[in-house]
Amino acid sequence: MKKLFNKIFAGVHLFAAVILIILSLIIMLWSIYEVISGIQYDSGFIPLMLQSVAAIIIAAAIIDVAQYMMEEEVFKDKELRDPKEARRTITKIIVIITIAVSIEGLVFIFKAGTKDLSLLLYPALLIMVSAILIVSLGVYQKLSATIEKREEESEL
To answer: What is the pTM of this model?
Structure first.
């Protein structure tokens, strides 16, 4: 019965991952379409490019999440998890989020610079959050590596 449920849930995760990839590709294609149509109508090229870059960054982050879902929930045997594997998985997720947040912050900095400098607070907070995420990830890795080393030593 457990194997049946694992197969059902793996199928659901696979379906969700495929849908996420399709939606991400649609976002990317729509962004390209918006840029091309914006060039034809000359409706502010730089803001349009920044908006398209932001949308493509979000789409790439969604694809990374879909890839993670497929790798962790569809292709790997969930019974074989150990602390080292869990640390790698959490690291992947945090790195994906950090990259998306920091690039989004940079895009918004350029947008705010073209409009109004008082709008720089939000992008600056995004950059600060991405830096906090990086530091937090480093602390997490250090602590979990120390625990893993202690467990390995106790097993010997």
So the answer is: 0.66
